[in-house]
Structure prediction request, 239 residues.
Amino acid sequence: MTRLKELAIEAHGGLQRWRQFEQVSADLVQGGVLWPLKGHPQTLERTTVTVGLKKEWASHAPFGAGGRRSRFAPDRVVLEASDGSVLEELVQPRASFSGHTLQTPWTELQLAYFAGCAMWTYLTMPFLLAWPGVATEELEPWQTDSGDWRRLAVRFPTEIATHSAVQTLYFDGDGLLKRHDYNVEIAGDTPGAHFIADYQEVSGIKFPTKRRIYARQPDGSFSTEPLVVSIDLSNIRLS
Prediction:
């Protein structure tokens, strides 16, 4: 049986093609109960995200009103004015979430950290599996109405900022990513089931354009109410 990591990377366009590019951008329309719960119902409702493919960084523009944009890296997040001047800065941002629960409101800088960390992970997957220090192990298949999905447990090194150190990916028979489970450590270790659909090919790379995230139960089940986060992507471009 083909190793699942290699099958998945090839199904999404292949590592050789992926490594030709430096960054990916996409227009986002986002919804769900998470944003108002955290005190920012509209800041990232409609925005454009750009993420790096060779280093971990991300930027959202606009970031709320006033022509601002965010810049995220694992050790620093900033909000910038339209001319690039720094308005606010948070160093070692993950430490600022200590003691948080799902209900704890976020500052704007904390929102920028979460959004950057999340979208960088989402847009670089499954190619992120080939990064140094990322370890994978195939698990037992997961049964669905449309057939078994092969599952991959992923363990991330500490230098990668992502939702949780251990995550689980689900792939269909063609090797396309269909579901992504993780715990959001910075929001009280809240478990999520993230469903992925409506693939589009851009410059030979396959990207899903519809993402829906729900609360996950210990047995892996989930409920579609409430909808925690919705993300619809368009105008995806690689450069």
